[in-house]
Specification:
- By secondary structure, this protein is of the alpha+beta class.
- The protein has one domain: 3-Layer(aba) Sandwich (NADH Oxidase).
- Helices cover about 30% and strands about 15% of the residues.
- It contains 6 helices and 4 strands.
- It has a 4-stranded antiparallel β-sheet with strand order 1-2-4-3, sandwiched between helices.
- The longest helix has 18 residues.
- The chain starts with 8 loop residues before the first helix and ends in a 30-residue tail after the last strand.
- The mean pLDDT is about 95.
- The structure holds flavin mononucleotide.
- Flavin mononucleotide (FMN) binds next to strand 3.
Length: about 180
């Protein structure tokens, strides 16, 4: 449970389900998820994130993305309405220099999408369990882009809830004064 009542409900209610409902996401809602991602902050305003997605509306393309996942993930993600991967541009467009914040910023964009999803009664679920190399060739991702994480998004079955005993590390282990390990909070 969050340790404060001040936490935004969309953050407090976000979780990573494996129990998606057989319910489509309407086009405006779907676009709103990526609109949220689009408004994330990024180093130099590069917006290095890209998303490759497929929805149940096109079963062939949905299967193309789903098949990249490891079997464990396929088993539950097949019920989500959207599956996709994040991709991050490796260099700054303005000068060609390496952007070491590319995956950082793509992660921030996916996190923003997940919070927007939660606010709209949906849930997103990130996945590392997929074949990133195959995703690159399958989708024709250019060399200057790095494969990030896979994800699923959808409505959740009504009875589904986050697992019991879901916890987080205490703030004292996460936030330090300028001396490493010394709790700031
Ligand atoms: C980058 C990333 C990779 C993940 N990989 C997987 C995965 O392959 N399979 C899976 O079931 N969950 C995966 N997860 C979900 C995490 O296990 C989950 O976020 C974590 O246990 C915390 O739970 P919560 O999101 O419900 O708070 C991943 C999450 C992230 C952010």
């Amino acid at each position: 449970m969050p340790e404060t009542n001040l936490l935004l409900p969309a953050i407090a209610n976000r979780w990573s389900p494996r129990t998606y409902a057989d319910k489509p996401i309407d086009p405006e809602t779907l676009a709103t998820l990526f609109e949220a991602a689009r408004w994330a902050a990024s180093c130099f305003g590069e917006e290095p994130w890209r998303f490759v997605i497929a929805t149940k509306a096109d079963p062939e393309k949905f299967a193309q993305v789903l098949n990249l996942l490891v079997p464990f993930n396929q088993d539950w993600a097949k019920n989500a309405y959207v599956v996709g991967i994040t991709v991050a541009k490796k260099t700054f467009t303005k000068n060609g220099n390496p952007n070491r914040f590319n995956l950082h910023d793509a992660g921030a964009a996916l996190a923003t999408l997940a919070i927007q999803a939660s606010a709209l009664g949906l849930q997103a679920h990130g996945m590392g369990g997929f074949d990133a190399q195959k995703a690159r060739t399958e989708f024709g991702v250019p060399d200057d882009f790095e494969i990030g994480a896979a994800f699923a998004v959808g409505y959740v079955n009504g009875s589904a809830a986050p697992p019991e005993g879901r916890t987080r590390k205490p703030l004292s282990e996460l936030v330090f004064t300028p001396t490493w390990g010394e709790p700031a909070l």
